[in-house]
Specification:
two-stranded parallel ribbon; 157 residues; 2 domains; single chain; two-stranded antiparallel ribbon; HTH_trans_reg/aminotransferase; PyrdxlP-dep_Trfase_major; PyrdxlP-dep_Trfase; alpha+beta
Amino acid sequence: MTPSSQFPLGVTLSHRRRLALLRWAERSNAWVFEDDYDSEYRYVGRPLASLQGLTPDARVIYTGTFSFITEGHFGRHVRRMRTLYAERQALLVEEARRELAGLIELHPADTGMHLTGWLPPGMDDRTASARAASAGIHVSPLSAFREVALVRGGPPH
């Protein structure tokens, strides 16, 4: 699970759904692997609590980027990078609105290090991805990430 910034859409798992997932893990005697890979890059509001920190006996295996650095260097680096990446994101969104109007709709993300662009109705995302690649721009078509099948009895939706 990446509850702080799901890839590819960049959405966060709500507090209610986080607790439901933890209850499911407890009932099912299952473990949740929490990959907190870029929660440090939250541009709006306070950082979100990790799954493993929500309850004292959470059935969560937690991993986070540089989670064992204790001297404060990483924290300072993240603060500098958060500001830089927020500025870059704002510039990218502004330029996309100016230069790509009608071709793609791009909105700022509250968290993460990627953005999702929305194509006009009827435009195939794989075709758009191939055209971008021919111009030297790597974009992943959203359809490549769609869920193929639901797992019966899986975590709450």
